[in-house]
Amino acid sequence: MAIAATFATVAASLFVPAQAATKSVTLEFWNYWDGSNGQALKTLVAEFNKNNPGITVKPVTFPWGDLLPKLQSSIAAGTTPALAATDIAWMANMHTSGKLVDLGKALGGVKKASGDIYPNLLTYGMYKGKLESLPASTNNLSLFYNKDLFRKAGLNPNKPPKTWDEMRAAALAISKLGNGVQGMEIYTGVGEGLTWQFQPYLWQSGAGFLNKSNTAPTFNSAAGKSALQFLVDIINVDHSATAGQWGAFDKGQAGMRIDGSWMVSGYRENAPFEFGTAMLPIPAGGTHATNMGGEQIFAFNKDAKTNAAAVKFISWFTSAPIQARWDSVTNFMPIRASVASSPVMLKHMVDEPALKAFVDQQKYAQARPAIAAYPAVSDAFSKALEPAFYGKVTVAEALAAAEAAVRKALAG
Amino acid sequence: MTRKSRAFILNASEHSFLIVIGSFVALPFIWMISTSLKPPRLALAPPYLWPSHFHWQNFVDAWSDAPFSQYYINSVFVAVFVTAGQVITSAFAAYAFDRFEFPFKKTLWYLLLGTLMIPLPLLVIPTFQIVQTLGWANTFTALIVPRCWTAFGILMLRQFFKSVPRDFDDAAKVDGAGTLRIVFTIMMPLAAPAMATLGLFAFLFAWNDFLWPLIALNSPEKFTVPLGIANFTGKYGTRWSLLMAATVTATIPAVLAFLAAQKSLIKGLTAGGLNE
Amino acid sequence: MPRIKKEAKTAYFLIAPAFTLFLVFSLYPLLWSARISFTSWDGLNATKKFIGTKNYSELLRNPEFLQSFRVTVVYVFVVTVCSTVIGFLLALALSKRMKSSAIYRTIFFSPVVTATVAAGVVWQLLFDPFSGLFNIALRAIGIEGPNWLGDPKWSLIAVSIVGIWKRIGFSMIIFAAGMASLPISCYEAAKVDGATGIKLTRYMTIPLLKPVTAVVAITGVIDSIQVFDHIFVMTNGGPMGSTNVLSMYLYNQGFRVFHLGMASAVGWLLFALILIVTAFQWQFTKGAEND
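ok -> structure tokens follow
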């Protein structure tokens, strides 16, 4: 009987859609920040809600891979939330929906809205001259290395490789330890993972990915070929890395890997080995470069009252003091200079020395092309390169195929 | 070869077959349970099967990471209704297809089978639009109603109803029973093993469904268990021990459903014709 | 005449609940996606541009799609045949062992009960070339195990193993239910004639179970053609498309690359394929049934 009563109550409350709030505005905030990041968000949001009676922001977390289909279906059905934060790589496509609030207009102009946010982070927010999203976080890729394995291979654990040649030599030395240990891990699976891990090599060697106007590929050049050949040789000549394998570093079975600042807390808690970080090694005669990741926060167009509340939250969340606290828990990188120099961040850098490499590299972080065709471009690019890692095609063939496929993807 | 030794060899080979397949099937579970009991630092490496000490804290952490008790209630609620809906609508339709003749019967049957073949991700967006038009977005109605039927159930029950002799129907009709009464008091009980099987599959389908609840629900307090578990594999790293602990816990109601369905199955088996 | 009309009325009344749901939640979305397959919609833009049959013609010439088709056919064949045969043998073996069967049945059914995402994750760990149990076992007897998921020669085998694993319990249960419903009378008659063991199985059980086998085989094909979950988790279609089954291809087109129009076209081709295969299977079993 009690069970029936519970069912009935649950049914009553959940069969009927929620009543619209009377005075205060409730803003759903969709994101994919889980675990400790999700907790940090909840804490900050609770503060905002307390200091802003009349506005209640409700964070809803979805798994990363599923947030996008969720947004797609909500746009199609008209059930979009008031706020959302998504991967910068999806922003170009979010903009095409035409449903985002013009933040520049709402905050008194693009300059006023962005303040001292690093300019390269704003590329993802601009669409047809309007500022429709702001960075909610940023991060970049650096080199992670296993200090224990370095020691075992006779390498100095406090002197990580600075050049491509040094990295290759270190990988070779570590792979000689045997027992299934890999010198380094290279991501060779089809998809954005491959593209985004490989782009720093292209930028460092001067080959570049697409041209400035994002209308044509530039990677099929001598510099591009040398970049790809470098990785292919590590796999197929040195055998210090294996194609189609990722995850050995987490288990302490690989000497090095390229990954983002968000991994630092995970490794700090769970890695069964001592790890270090360093700026990405560069080729002889090359320049520093790394890939920029992160999330952008934006608002879907609703009614005037909801929009105003959403804009208020966005402005608050991207402000320096809040971002400094946000970054100190999540290990994300500063989006503004004022965050980078704030006492909270400076103390955090001291507490977590592994972050230094990421902070130093932030100024060399490059943005991927912020165009709607980017997902198709990245997919085509990675599909053409994968066989090269397996030694099925030559580097020249792979890049030629990639160029043709990318041109096709750009044409839509 | 004597009949006795032939029987012995048959028996022995059956036994070995069962053990080999059984070990193959059980292996991932043992691994799953073992990982759920390892402390997070040791979850991935070095690989070992028997945890040196049982890290029950994983289960506590997994449970408190999200409001799982609410998720369980939601999942049970949805699953019970979907099961009832699927079983009843399938029994009705199967009875019609097996016992009756009517215009367009063949067309409708093929249409039905056809729906089994529709890849689900294809339908998600338009189905959501319909649900939203009906005003059911973000409600349990959206989770239950669209899934209250199953072409598979109709297919399976039609095959089983075939084996229920028509004499029973006719006898009941002579007694003045209406169609519904025949379905509920004759067809369903006589095809009990099939009904139990269908009920079990319906429950499992509703219990494990991930994509549709993901699209249809926005409020965390309405999430079902698979949505809660998916959050353990984030963009920023997978929390293995917690994932395994949560999965092990989520499997328990499903196993219970199976055990409940088994009772009916065993009853049917002992009454069946294969015992020697 | 009136008798038939009444019969039809009752029949329609009985199938009404299922068919109403079918019309609203299956047929309409299906037709909607057909319409989309003739556009270049990206899933987000407000406008959908009509491009005729361009998606379909491109697909049929696309080597990636053709590879996906091949991969799917191989997977479906292997998984359906193996899981049906093994399921049948298990049900048969268990039908004779009342005491231990409950435990066995629970074990064999547990993969069906597990969420595929979690199963995929665990199998990934088991297939790990260095620390996975399979290669550790192989190493113990001196064989260097392959990179199950990262080697294009082995990846399809690996995901097929998982597919079979997941399906054995399902086919076993249906066969068990079928065996439970077999008429005792036939068996008594056969035993009187002196039939036992394998003979009994071959000449009585198998033929009598033809309708049930049809269900298992047909649903096996339909199910495995749409396989997605564990492949998504374990290999994401790779390496080099060696496990890129059609629904994986569909998902990538729709949700990764924003070609929802193309994805719908893939979905419809997949649908057409299943329709044809199933029609064949159904006709085949209908013929056999009439024995």
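Chain C has 13 helices and no strands.
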